[in-house]
Amino acid sequence: xxxxxxxxxxxxxxxxxxxxxxxxxxxxxxxxxxxxxxxxxxxxxxxxxxxxxxxxxxxxxxxxxxxxxxxxxxxxxxxxxxxxxxxxxxxxxxxxxxxxxxxxxxxxxxxxxxxxxxxxxxxxxxxxxxxxxxxxxxxxxxxxxxxxxxxxxxxxxxxxxxxxxxxxxxxxxxxxxxxxxxxxxxxxxxxxxxxxxxxxxxxxxxxxxxxxxxxxxxxxxxxxxxxxxxxxxxxxxxxxxxxxxxxxxxxxxxxxxxxxxxxxxxxxxxxxxxxxxxxxxxxxxxxxxxxxxxxxxxxxxxxxxxxxxxxxxxxxxxxxxxxxxxxxxxxxxxxxxxxxxxxxxxxxxxxxxxxxxxxxxxxxxxxxxxxxxxxxxxxxxxxxxxxxxxxxxxxxxxxxxxxxxxxxxxxxxxxxxxxxxxxxxxxxxxxxxxxxxxxxxxxxxxxxxxxxxxxxxxxxxxxxxxxxxxxxxxxxxxxxxxxxxxxxxxxxxxxxxxxxxxxxxxxxxxxxxxxxxxxxxxxxxxxxxxxxxxxxxxxxxxxxxxxxxxxxxxx
Length: 555
What we know:
alpha+beta
């Protein structure tokens, strides 16, 4: 068969079948158009043949659309008349037909619009009912739900209007320590005990482990919370004057200590401020300790042969320990970056931490003590937080005051009625710029002592000793995972007038360097080196060098 004959047969076939294509769904019509386009591109159809076929196809398509409309309209009109007879009058009924100037009846259009409006209203009512049902389910006190987990914020559950948050951390380190020197009463170095020895331990760092439960709600516009914080250690505990912090006992059948540091409630709001009642970290010295990079490492270890719940960090080598103290305190609202916190605290005893003369074996105490308090301790601070572009910072200043009564020692008795008013002040600043963070802190006190609050602050004769200390710290984050930190700190305890040189500590100092690697949102690996030295007023020195490696998990 000649090519011209085949061409005429193809055109005739397309003409004959076009009516079949146009009776199908719109998708089939699109397929017919595509087929004509392809045949034209291949040269199977001339331009005239292509145009004729397309014209015929469009005409049949228009006829099909008109036929469909004609079939649907009588059914809709009949339905409308049925509704009218049943008493359900429509907005555009046969009794109120709408015509245009040409006389055409457009009632079906209005019926379509009315149907669409009815459907939209029904959908809106259904959506609102679903929303109200969902809100009722969320606030149902019988349903407990969990918030989306945010790294570092703990796990939060809601039972109605009450939120229960569980958070905490676990850490563990291997530490090797080389200690040597002569006896220093009240020294923080492991070598201050006067022995030369090397020691290995698997232990906690500056922090023990922790499980913290926080229960919060809002009632009548007042935000309320109850907090319970348990801080157990890894190593066996040997109870003493400082309870779980008294030291360790690495013998069989021993058990670790549980330090229940936090038990408090708060209530208030952003307008009135917040009141706290219970046991929590003190106000004086709190920013110094919470800004310390050794908080999640070890810092000065304070002894490694029988480790207790924690190491010392920078306690006694840059600041005094803020401690966890029963208190009633008030924190003001934040006003242009400024916030004030004040509180009355459980008064604490004056304590002879340094022991006695003759390297701790003599009869004469190195410091006075007291156990009577007619007034509470008072503490307070003011902070200023600021931001300028990438620069962020905080400046703070604080105070502490307490009256010690009925002091006693190997020199004076309670009956003599000796008393002393202890005073202390502090100042600190911290700045962060991109990956860098820098900090400087200074304190000075009269009668407050060194290392712990009221440790060795008053002489056996009842006179106050002055003390001061400082630390500087810098850290740099290379990226979101790797961080390097280093710090240096000193705490000095001065003699009161008339005192003679003794084994009482005069100066504790340390240098610390640490490398942190954040492996996941929960786990950080830590490697650290620290050197600590204690110097007595009579010239005795104790030193130690420690190296540690381990991990910290926060959740």
